[in-house]
Amino acid sequence: xxxxxxxxxxxxxxxxxxxxxxxxxxxxxxxxxxxxxxxxxxxxxxxxxxxxxxxxxxxxxxxxxxxxxxxxxxxxxxxxxxxxxxxxxxxxxxxxxxxxxxxxxxxxxxxxxxxxxxxxxxxxxxxxxxxxxxxxxxxxxxxxxxxxxxxxxxxxxxxxxxxxxxxxxxxxxxxxxxxxxxxxxxxxxxxxxxxxxxxxxxxxxxxxxxxxxxxxxxxxxxxxxxxxxxxxxxxxxxxxxxxxxxxxxxxxxxxxxxxxxxxxxxxxxxxxxxxxxxxxxxxxxxxxxxxxxxxxxxxxxxxxxxxxxxxxxxxxxxxxxxxxxxxxxxxxxxxxx
Length: 337
Known about the structure:
Elements: E1 3-11, E2 16-18, H1 19-26, H2 30-36, E3 41-43, H3 52-67, E4 76-79, H4 92-100, E5 106-109, H5 116-130, E6 135-142, E7 164-172, E8 180-189, E9 197-198, H6 210-214, E10 221-222, H7 227-249, E11 257-262, H8 267-277, H9 297-307, E12 316-323, E13 327-335
Helix pairs in contact: 1-2, 3-4, 7-8
């Protein structure tokens, strides 16, 4: 039994912010923002539109059309995007299912932050393999750019946060409609980083109040002084470990890799990882025109690779991601086109 990706879609808002504008607002030199952080521009949402569910519906409609699947054929709608959604304590998945007309599907959510795409595919693949569902829609969206304070130097590694959405349709034994065969996955977590990146107020530890709003505590920040020093020696090896593990479980090695869809990160780290994995310039896409769109990054990179002709039938594609917490994850696919 084969688990197949039969369709995908991506969506980004029309409005953009350039690296030059981020530099002007943050006080960081433009060369650092553009060259080191890797932000030529990124898409951002207007305050009154492009909420998480709006963007998911846009991406999902394209994915369903790509897969030639009607909404009423879906058994599952899984949201694996940002927890910063239209409302708090709320199911974006249920809202997306309703708006699409997926009346036969149940809706649920999965959170691994920026490592969400490989793991959402992993868990849905397992459900398809057991026969729990036959057809699933995975949606993700992020507008966490709203939560970034460009005046907070501690949060500078989040200045690349952009907005957008993605959707994947997964099915069992899809035959000629197969866009990619889903292979194996791997993941690991180092929970010692679990309280480093937080929004200080808004949860049960510090409920929202006039005082927390006035104090600016509803933006993401780095709560520790030494996270960069602690994560530097472990992140690279952990990325490579999950990549190798997912490939090995799939009966593959780095030599079989044809394209890596990688989380947006600073340019030097991206280049180091792709060099270590042994892939050439056409075998990855650096998302400097999108920034980091949480668990949407893998779909954006894949889409750019497909449209550029850098992902072809028979290619091994690796979705490789990491999310604060910290979790590193990878899923291997065989592209059929």
